[in-house]
Amino acid sequence: MSFKDNKEYGKIRVKDITLSPATLKDAFIMSRLYLRAFEHDPNRAIPFPRCVGMSGETYIRAAQMNKAKDLSMDIVSTDIVLKAMVQFENEDRKLLEALAGFAHWTSPDGPRKRTIWEWILSTIVFPICNFFSPIGDTPAETKRQIKELFQNQLNATFGPGGKAYNRRYWHLRTICVDPDWQGFGIGNKLLKWSFDKAAESDSVVYLETSPMGLNFYLAKGFQITTSLPAIEINGIHFSAPGMIWMPTLPQEK
């Protein structure tokens, strides 16, 4: 891999990216990293955040549940937090290491049944709300995005995505990468970890995102399965789509 620019270290070349359980010692760096990621790209750097302080709260709770030890990756654990450590060298060929990203999951839960209210939100309220919420830079772009959201919602409700909703799932609550370390495949590696775990445990990966981050996760193989109550981004109200990824989509009958 060729050298790339990094604001803190100058020209660097990544040698390896490793994932390992986070500990309380990482809390300060992870909190700072989360804030930097949120400020840099609040709509795509992380699956939809409820608030800026969410990461610290869930991280500390997870650490306390595990008695301040390494957060277990056992399937019976409730909360799992992995950090992404990057080993790299600078132009002087000095080998260095940095914590560049992390992700927080709740381990497999379910299966669950879709409630009548969720069905109404997914099938009726979510598509209609988007007709009254300008989400594109131009009227044409808004129309295109509304059409995509409406079609995806119908496909997810009555197609494979709707069937996947009743599977056990890994809830991906937070995934973020330091802005200075984006473009090195760190986020993809964290996401792939949950894909591999889902395949091992015959479950799916669930997350909530914003409409602006929707296409990113659709490109990763996620499908919309539900929508959440309205939220606000930059003064505009949206319904936040819930999305599911699964190793093998169920076949239509």
TrEMBL record:
One of its GO terms (molecular function) is acyltransferase activity, transferring groups other than amino-acyl groups. Residues 86-251 form the N-acetyltransferase domain. InterPro entries: Acyl_CoA_acyltransferase (IPR016181), GNAT_dom (IPR000182), Trichothecene_AcTrans (IPR052523). This is N-acetyltransferase domain-containing protein.
